[in-house]
Amino acid sequence: MNQMLAVAIGGAVGAMGRYWIVGLATQWFGKGFPYGTMLVNVAGSVLIGVLYSLIVQHLKLEPHWQAVLMTGFTGAFTTFSTFALESLNLFQSGRTTAALVYIVLSVICCLAAVAVGIWLGKQLA
């Protein structure tokens, strides 16, 4: 499979998943805090840990699987650029505490989520 096509397919599905989850989180929790983006980033961090552990370390699958699932799907599903913009918007709107909480929680939770994902991947291998 062409690597670019694999990334495009995975990216399209990942972007639709992100859109759906962020929309649901906004309906449930409101627009006062970027819960949807944070949820997607943590879930994507767990997922990329699992995928890395399975695809790269244990199963050593063909490179197109890494392209479609890790680069494409997870790359489009997680939203670090949105995280940066939302953090800046919180700062600029005078919500410094919310911005700092969001940044610290996102970084800590996503690092922990990748570690959990790698551990889960090892359990599944």
Write up this protein.
It is found in: Cell membrane. With 125 residues, the protein is an all-alpha fold. The protein has one domain (3-124). It is 86% helix and 0% strand. The protein is built from five helices and no strands. α1 packs parallel to α3 (63-77). The model has no long low-confidence stretch (mean pLDDT 94).
SSE layout and pairings?
Layout (H helix, E strand, L loop, with lengths): L2 H27 L5 H24 L4 H15 L2 H13 L3 H29 L1
Q: Give the low-pLDDT segments.
A: none
Structural class: mainly alpha
Q: Beta-sheet strand percentage?
A: under 5%
Total DSSP helices:
5
Query: Fraction of residues in helices?
Result: over 70%
The total count of strands amounts to 0
Mean pLDDT: 94
How far apart are the first and last residues' alpha carbons, in Å? 24 Å
- Order of SSEs: HHHHH
Question: How many domains is the backbone divided into?
Answer: 1
Organism: Oceanospirillum sediminis
Catalytic activity: fluoride(in) = fluoride(out)
Pfam family, one: CRCB
GO molecular function: fluoride channel activity; metal ion binding
